[in-house]
Automatic annotation (TrEMBL):
This is NAD(P)H nitroreductase. Belongs to the nitroreductase family. SUPFAM superfamilies: FMN-dependent nitroreductase-like (SSF55469). Pfam families: Nitroreductase. InterPro entries: Nitroreductase (IPR029479), Nitroreductase-like (IPR000415). It comes from Brevibacillus reuszeri. Keywords: Oxidoreductase. It comes from the Bacteria.
């Protein structure tokens, strides 16, 4: 029980101390090996059919961060942070089903018959799906992995801020990203030079409803 209490406390520290940090110490460098470890931990997040359609462009070269700066409307965290993680959705992510489910068979999580059935169903569904629907799935899955990445970073003592404020068209052009991918967000990663300011949240009673939505609930 004591161990569970300690684990819960550590988890609560991560989620309560995470802030959106916009001022970073530019002298702090994070190794590519550690960023890879963080990405690996982040990709334990769930995804539709476990297809993991997220892809990451890690920008840690200072000249490239300077190139990104005007595209991101001159937000200084772009050049101050140790790295910028561009979270992308892959419209053709479903084509990795063979690789994913083969690994699942090797791990003993499923047999060949289940694998073949799943791959056939996925290829059938996705090959005929509208691009907009695939995009919606990728956006949801990308949001899940992005949030997990930010919590992983905080657990390791780093800070982050998710960024939607950038010109996606110019970003794709500047970094030679084809239309196979949809930009989901940028995440600045580094060590805070100034702490992120605390924020407030709506009360749970104002946002959570039991069995019926407010429009059909009698007035109290």
């Amino acid at each position: 029980m004591e161990q569970l209490t300690t684990q819960r406390a550590a988890f609560l520290d991560v989620i309560t101390e995470r802030r959106s940090v916009r001022h970073y110490d530019p002298s702090v460098k994070i190794s590519r090996d550690e960023i890879k470890e963080m990405l690996k931990e982040a990709t334990l997040a769930p995804s539709s059919s476990n297809l993991q359609p997220w892809r990451f462009l890690v920008i840690d070269d200072q000249e490239l961060k300077e190139k990104l700066l005007p595209i991101a409307f001159n937000q200084q965290q772009v050049v101050q942070a140790s790295a910028i993680i561009a979270v992308l959705g892959d419209y053709e992510g479903y084509k990795a089903a063979e690789t994913i489910y083969t690994k699942a068979v090797s791990a003993g999580f499923m047999n060949e018959e289940v694998k073949s059935s799943l791959i056939q169903n996925i290829n059938s569904r996705y090959s005929n799906r509208a691009r907009e629907i695939i995009k919606e799935i990728a956006l949801v899955d990308g949001g899940l992995v992005a949030m997990q990445f930010m919590l992983v970073a905080k657990a390791r003592g780093y800070d982050t801020v998710p960024m939607g404020g950038y010109n996606t068209d110019k970003f794709m052009e500047a970094f030679d990203i084809t239309d196979r991918y949809v930009p989901i967000m940028l995440i600045a990663l580094g060590k805070a030079a100034q702490p992120g300011h605390p924020t407030v949240r709506l009360d749970v009673d104002d946002i959570a409803f039991w069995n019926e939505m407010p429009s059909s609930v009698s007035e109290k």
